Amino acid sequence: MLPVTRCDEHLYPVPKFDLGKGDVKDFMNELKGFHEQFYDCFQRSESREHFLKFMAGQFSPLERKSIEPIALAVKDGNVRAMQRFVSDAPWADDKILTKYRSFVNDDLGSPDGALIFDESSFVKKGQDSIGVAKQYCGTIGKVENCQVGVFAAYVSENGYAMVDKRLFLPEKWFTDDYIERRKKCNLPEDTVFLTKPQLAVEMLSAVNQENVLPFKYVLGDSIYGISPDFIAAVESLPDKTYLVSVPKDTRCWLKRPMTITRSYRWGGKTRTKTLLVDPDSKPLTVEELARNINDYFWYRRQVSEGTKGPIVYEFTRRRVILSAEGLPQKTVWLLIRRSLGDDPQYSYFISNASSSTRLKTLVWLSGLRWAIEQCFEEAKTELGMDHYEVRKFPGWQHHMLTCMLAHFFLWHLKIRMGKKSAIYYAVAA
């Protein structure tokens, strides 16, 4: 169940999606109007027709919403033609995304909006689908043969939507053993290996440079929290605040230790080395720090309403100096969350928010990530986001793009109709 609102605890509440099937009288006519906005993104009229039919199939009551059942279910559908459209026909992908994000801004845009980065996994059989490999699959919580996508979502007081995507390609896909598979999957020749945080940086840069969708906050889990590339990318953007998870072994100081820089010669050159003045001034792990904080400093907050009653956590925060290779680096907020009970479980977050930032703001930000999880849940449950059977790189991109557009289209209907809904406090359970 989604979190419950508490108006004194957050900067803004986030609505949930609650549009019912009976709320829209002329659904297909509205869908055609939405699709007309993308007509100039396709070269042929046949592609425009397939684009509409494919998305119409995503909204259908079909049990499985992959290409073949959709093509068989829609009027005048053709399986082979639709397969070619999704995997091989030219799409103006960048143009579609730019138009799409302008629509997201029209309905959801806010100067206090947040970009959220997260992965979603898709279990797959066989070895021929682009990017498939034995890797951690978050959907089932273990290593399995799957594909992994990195996604960006947008959330504001008006709602939430996915706004970009990248397929993660494991490093072995760039070895000589995979040359033929890369060709069969139509992977662009200039594609290079990028980590998940580096893919997120690409999306962050694209959204920022496009300057269509306003945002103030950037959120992510510990994969991004421990990535120097990701943190540096956010910090390079003026007036952006990040809050990201970090693992329990992250090291820090409560007080910046003194350092000294010494010169030495090596290889005929003069070099410098920075050392701690007091070698015994070793950093603590955030776990050690958390377990030694007196109960006086923990603030109890109800963060959601579960099936068995209210879910409550306790929070505290500290200004800390992060350690990198045993030396002091940047000063950040460390937010700590713990569960109640005799054996509390801890979660840790860091943020570059200003020193005057209040605890309630950090608590609120720590929970906004539920919005991207809700995007995945709704797109998979209602739109067949995980039903695809395409093998080629363009096919994966196009399937995910239509899922993003379809999900947002439903949000647009809700907003256009001015439908009021329950408001939910954005702190995840």
TrEMBL record:
InterPro entries: IS701-like, IS701-like_DDE_dom, RNaseH-like_sf. Residues 37-310 form the Transposase IS701-like DDE domain. Pfam families: DDE_5. It comes from the Bacteria. NCBIfam families: transpos_IS701. This is IS701 family transposase. The lineage of its organism: Bacteria, Pseudomonadati, Thermodesulfobacteriota, Desulfobacteria, Desulfobacterales.
